[in-house]
Amino acid sequence: MDTVLTRDEYTVPTRYWHRIDADRVQCDLCPRYCKLREGQRGLCFVRGNIDGEIVMTSYGRSSGFAVDPIEKKPLNHFLPGTPVFSFGTAGCNLACKYCQNWDISKSREIDTLADAASPEKIAQAADELGCRSVAYTYNDPVIFHEYAIDVAKVCRERGIKSVAVTAGYVCDEPRREFYQYMDAANVDLKGFDDEFYVKLTGGHLQPVLDTLTYLRHETDVWFEITTLLIPGHNDSDEEIDAMTRWVVRELGPDVPMHFTAFHPDYKMMDVPPTPPETLTRARNIAMRNGVRYAYTGNVHDKGGESTYCHQCGQLLIGRDWYRLSEWNLDAEGRCTRCGTPCAGVFEEKPGDWGPKRIAVRMN
């Protein structure tokens, strides 16, 4: 662990920790339970032990800000077509060997945190740019828990929604505090085998399942699930079948699932990209098992990107990459042909943001 840790203006105290002995404290934010001596950082890089307490060292600092389409998170049933103000910090509490954002999530350089903004400044910028929501993304908001919550509180005062893009690897008490302030989430269910989690992410499966069942049964947060399918690792029919059956049984048929394509990156450059037919196969298995809204991602597949009525089959929301091509929902989010409700959070009309991405400099 990095032992160079000092207090500065971006350092804030945290709540979720306890002292183990005279020399060490334990971080209780996530199931890694990092045990740290004075001056040590946890695996996440942004939390560590200063003066015998766990502090967060990146409050108010970001690796970048941008306006994205909400579908890029990916969220297909939450304010479709609208722009979302997106930002992240540095570091991560998992150690995925295939991380697609490894330059941010695995950064050990404070220079990655090149931009700074207070919660008030972020909410103001999102408002002025016409964003309906703010996304805590690029790396996992679990590790910038305090910063994300403070941003969400200010956004809520302005009527701006908050979106967590997360691996769901968090302990129960901080999970409950965090999701009091979130309106939507995309949870990365990386696989459905604990051995996969241990070998390729450095974590475990059960805490992620706990997050999903908590969201479904104890909150009003709208959430969708993403699984990056990696050839030869988590893409078998048996694993996809077990995963999707669990989702329908424990979460219900209305939770959208996104099956996305892997590309060689970070420490898994020797694994080939995911063939498009693997995504289609996974989508078919999910729908056969009762998942009403299953999608393919990171590939151009208009059929796999679009939303259909589970009752009559009508195309409800057509998508071409991140551009909405058709809209057949009424003002209350029901199919215009048969009147069946489509699960999600919809406004009377969709947004028209399209595929645009705008980088934002706050300073």
Radius of gyration: 20 Å
The appropriate CATH architecture of the largest domain is: Alpha-Beta Barrel
- What CATH calls the topology of the largest domain is TIM Barrel
What assembly state would you assign to the polypeptide chains in this entry? single chain
Order of helices and strands: EEEEEEEEEHEHEHEHEHHEHEHEHEEEE
Considering the protein shown, what is the CATH homologous superfamily of the largest domain? Aldolase class I
Helical stretch tally: 9
> What gap, in angstroms, lies between the N and C termini?
32 Å
- Low-pLDDT sequence parts: none
Gross geometry: globular
Question: Structural class of the helix and strand makeup?
Answer: alpha/beta
Number of domains: 2
Number of strands: 20
Largest sheet: 9 strands, mixed
**CATH classification class of the largest domain:** Alpha Beta
Indicate the percent of residues in helices. Answer: 10-25%
> What proportion of the residues form beta strands (DSSP E)?
15-25%
Across the major sheet, the strand order is: 16-15-14-13-12-11-9-8-20
Q: What's the pLDDT, averaged over the residues?
A: 94
Helix and strand arrangement:
Layout: E1 12-13, E2 17-19, E3 24-27, E4 35-37, E5 47-50, E6 53-56, E7 61-62, E8 64-69, E9 83-88, H1 102-105, E10 115-116, H2 119-128, E11 133-136, H3 145-157, E12 161-166, H4 172-179, E13 184-188, H5 194-201, H6 206-218, E14 222-229, H7 237-250, E15 257-261, H8 276-288, E16 294-297, H9 302-305, E17 307-308, E18 315-320, E19 323-327, E20 358-360
Parallel strand pairs: 9-11, 11-12, 12-13, 13-14, 14-15, 15-16
Antiparallel strand pairs: 1-6, 2-3, 3-4, 5-6, 7-10, 8-9, 8-20, 17-18, 18-19
Helix pairs in contact: 2-3, 7-8
